[in-house]
Design a protein that fits this description.
Length: 165
């Protein structure tokens, strides 16, 4: 069964947020009628789709430096299910082209771009082969091994782009 793991914040950031919440007035920082869960869900999300657990964790570690929350998925099917539930909060998908399962990264990118055309989608692979010719319009490609700074710069572009919408 496909699984997704939510990496919300680093431990120190969670602790700082908890301390602020304890010190704050009950409704401080929230709009009228807004719950704490609704306010937290306004943070933008980067969706990492990689079937290799070590590479998925490495990408998560790199993106923890961004101001995005991270959701990890091990398959395109799990990522698409996540998008159907949380698509309005996702600002970037970083996915491997070659994934186990029925769908690969190209299939995922094609489906996502049809439903969420303004979403930043970056596909990566160490051996894309002829699949690279099938990249949907508006999808970027980052060859492996990628540089962490390039992934962080892409996350910043996605975050900045999402602020304008």
């Amino acid at each position: 069964m496909p699984s997704c793991h939510v990496i919300v914040e680093s431990a120190s950031a969670r602790l700082a947020a908890l301390l602020r919440d304890l010190e704050a007035e009950p409704d401080e920082g929230f709009k009228q009628g807004e719950t704490m869960g609704q306010a937290q869900s306004k943070r933008r999300i980067a969706l990492i789709v990689e079937d290799d657990a070590e590479l998925r964790r490495l990408t998560t570690t790199v993106l923890e430096e961004s101001e995005l929350d991270i959701i990890e998925c091990e398959s395109a099917e799990a990522a698409l299910a996540t998008m159907l539930l949380r698509g309005q909060d996702v600002t970037m998908i970083f996915a491997d082209i070659r994934l186990s399962g029925v769908m690969d990264g190209i299939d995922l990118a094609r489906e996502v771009k049809m439903r969420w055309p303004h979403l930043m989608v970056i596909l990566t692979s160490g051996n894309a082969g002829e699949r690279l010719e099938q990249l949907p319009p508006g999808v970027d490609y980052m060859p492996k091994p990628w540089q962490p700074i390039n992934v962080l710069m892409a996350a910043e572009r996605a975050r900045s782009s999402a602020r304008g919408r």
